[in-house]
Amino acid sequence: MSIDEKIVADFVANRIEFVTTVPCKQLGGVIDQVERSPQIHHVPSNKEDEGMGLCAGAFMGGKRAAIIMQNTALGVTGNTLATLIQFYRIPLPMLISYRGELGEPIACQVEMAVHTKALLAQLHIPTYHFHRQEDVGEFDKILKYTYMCNKPVAILTDASFWGGY
Amino acid sequence: MIRSEVLREIVPLISDHLVVCNIGLPSQELHHIDDQPSNFYMLGTMGLASSIGLGLALAQKEKVIAIDGDGSVLTNLGTLPTVANNVADNFILLIIDNGSYGSTGDQPTYAGKKTSLAAVARACGCETVVEVAAKDTAQALKTALEGDKMTVIVSKCISGNIKLPVIAMDPVVIRDRFMREVQRRNS
Ligand SMILES: [Mg+2]
């Protein structure tokens, strides 16, 4: 089973039926798997705060929802995380490509990478960092943890985890 | 007609449906006129009423009406292509377009100038889009509810507000009450 297949299998095993995505090169494979999964309703969104709104609505409609996005989007979702997801206590797994780490070819990505963990810490969002391929073994537990505590939970996945570009 | 008068006219139609209501005065007005468990009030997060409403409509069978504003749609304009391309025939997006940011003191929006939100919605691919004068909103909504077709309604009204207190309900109570109602109606 590939990492992409494992992540989507864990989504399905945890009854996550609605996934919204904003693409990133690193996430291409997992987004393809989400699109292919018959158990998951995939709704691409144009911006991550919009995606979080879709997830909040789907959750209230009875479907567990997750978002797949890039870490740069933490710069545009602060208000939505605080005033919608956290204020109303909506569980939200956020699978995030952690651009700007080792192996990154684009200097500008580092500019948000240096703020990524600080922003998540400031927002009191439980954060996990997948660096080695075997780290994906914790994904299932992280999803269960998310629905135990009804919080947004971030899973940062860097280039080493995805095996480079 | 101002927004609160439009809301008063449509309450008999929306009262029996799931409603996601925009931040600020629209939610305060709906809460004041017709508070009930089938209403989800946004206490923050300007712009996301249409996104929350669409997510809700896609996830369950009951009809959903998102009450949005022109300023809020402008702040999340990317929502219209998402609505157009993810058709939910149980979804109605009602944009009450008073050409101003009502909750912040009636500063003008571009929707009150050159920008037509109905034309934007059509250009984004929304198939059923109607623009009506405020007094015809209830009729347009009635038609949309009977039509079982995803519909965007742009209701052109004048700006103006009534003085109301903020909603004191806890957000978790609003959400929990709403979710129980969604579940009850779907079971
Ligand atoms: Mg307005």
From TrEMBL, chain A:
<protein>
    <submittedName>
        <fullName>Sulfopyruvate decarboxylase subunit alpha</fullName>
    </submittedName>
</protein>
<dbReference type="InterPro" id="IPR029061">
    <property type="entry name" value="THDP-binding"/>
</dbReference>
<keyword id="KW-0210">Decarboxylase</keyword>
<dbReference type="InterPro" id="IPR051818">
    <property type="entry name" value="TPP_dependent_decarboxylase"/>
</dbReference>
<keyword id="KW-0456">Lyase</keyword>
UniProtKB/TrEMBL annotation, chain B:
<dbReference type="InterPro" id="IPR022494">
    <property type="entry name" value="Sulfopyruvate_deCO2ase_bsu"/>
</dbReference>
<dbReference type="GO" id="GO:0050545">
    <property type="term" value="F:sulfopyruvate decarboxylase activity"/>
</dbReference>
<protein>
    <submittedName>
        <fullName>Sulfopyruvate decarboxylase subunit beta</fullName>
        <ecNumber>4.1.1.79</ecNumber>
    </submittedName>
</protein>
<keyword id="KW-0210">Decarboxylase</keyword>
<dbReference type="Pfam" id="PF02775">
    <property type="entry name" value="TPP_enzyme_C"/>
</dbReference>
<feature type="domain" description="Thiamine pyrophosphate enzyme TPP-binding">
    <location>
        <begin position="40"/>
        <end position="154"/>
    </location>
</feature>
<dbReference type="InterPro" id="IPR051818">
    <property type="entry name" value="TPP_dependent_decarboxylase"/>
</dbReference>
<dbReference type="InterPro" id="IPR029061">
    <property type="entry name" value="THDP-binding"/>
</dbReference>
<keyword id="KW-0456">Lyase</keyword>
<dbReference type="InterPro" id="IPR011766">
    <property type="entry name" value="TPP_enzyme_TPP-bd"/>
</dbReference>
